[in-house]
Amino acid sequence: MSDDDIFSRLFELFNQPGPVNWKLAAEVSHHLTGERVPIDPWAAEEYRELSRLAEFRLEQVSPIPVAMAPDVLPVDAREWADRHLEAYGYLSEAFADMGQLSGPLAQLGPAMIGMQVGSLVGGLATWVLASFDGGLPAGRQLPLCVIVPHVEDFARRHSFEASAVRLWVVSEEVAYRTVATVPFAIDRLRRLLEAEAATIQFDPSSLAGLIGMSNPEQMQEMVADQLSEVFDSEETAAARAETEAFLGLLGGYARLLAERATAELLPDRERIVAARDEERVPAEAQIPFGPAPPRSQAIEEGRTFCLEIERRYGPEELNRLWTAENRLPTASEIEDPVAWAARVLLEDF
Question: Which of the 8 DSSP states describes residue 198?
């Protein structure tokens, strides 16, 4: 490639309109996911049937109206990333101000956010089975997408019956999509991310060297190196704990609903969940800043909190948890349901 071609590509890559450099986001995402993988034709019909079954079963146990998928698509990692890239863009909006500069460095802000989005979505696509596995709600309605190669590999790796794993994945996905449609869920997550971003002090001019790079992997490494110490403050850690607690609550309640919807259909469900929890979120999926998938522990803590509310105060109170944002627990209240009750239930009188 000639020098002119290199500079033309760099100019095109960095000279993108808007607060997010979507072209760079796609480049980073594609770098992580690699080339497309063919999907067996049988998968489309089977996953559609399983999804409709899961939706029907969930309707019997969910107090939240079930979010019916407009379509069900068996995909590979790259297609999953392409379909989810812009739907996850809202997760980075709160961090856009970190990159505001003027003059020759003005392009760094959108580029940095673009790399973050690409790293997030591309990283997720390398290991999630479906969106529920990443524990981050999409910002708009999408087809229900299952990454078939990951599902089949997970079943083989643990010697599970493949059909059982497919039903488990679809039931978890349907339940997660349903819980994520609670009207205030996305807005609450936005506010939590804004609170996290407000704790961060960062000078984007430290990333000026990005302008001379064209390799997405080198660009990611530079961003990660420069930002590694920015998120170590106590304030940022506390804000991140609140975000993770909320994401864990969403995932934990969705897990509980899926469990109840498929109890007699999946006798191996407990073993499947335990195996998946042990291997979620590999180290290489970490991203330099912004939202991160909740740990398996946070999801289980969210589920346990829901069970405790139901046990102590009845199913009606668990259902009412999702009727108003001020009824949702804080991170400390998830660990102490009595403290949640003292704040929320006493306000009812």
Answer: T
Domain segments of the chain: what residues? 3-347
Run of H or E residues at 261: helix 234-261
Q: What pTM did the predictor assign?
A: 0.86
Q: Is 73 helix (H, G, I), strand (E, B) or coil?
A: strand
As a whole number of angstroms, the distance between CA 239 and CA 96 comes to: 17
Residue 110's pLDDT band (cuts 50, 70, 90): confident
Smallest Cα–Cα separation from 246: which of 165, 168, 305, 310?
305
How many residues comprise the chain? Answer: 349
Q: Quick count: other Cβ atoms within 10 Å of Cβ 173?
A: 26
Residue pLDDT, tens place only, 144-201 = 999 999 999 999 999 999 999 999 999 999 999 999 999 999 999 999 999 988 887 6
Among 106, 70, 128, 83, CA closest to 280: 128
CA dihedral 125, 86, 132, 120 (to 10 degrees): 50
**Tokens representing residue 101 in the block:** 């500069």
Which pLDDT tens digit goes with each residue over 67-105? Answer: 888 899 999 999 999 999 999 988 888 777 654 554 545
CA distance 223 to 220: 5
Partners of 147 in the β-ladder: 75
Beta strand 72-75 pairing with 144-147: parallel
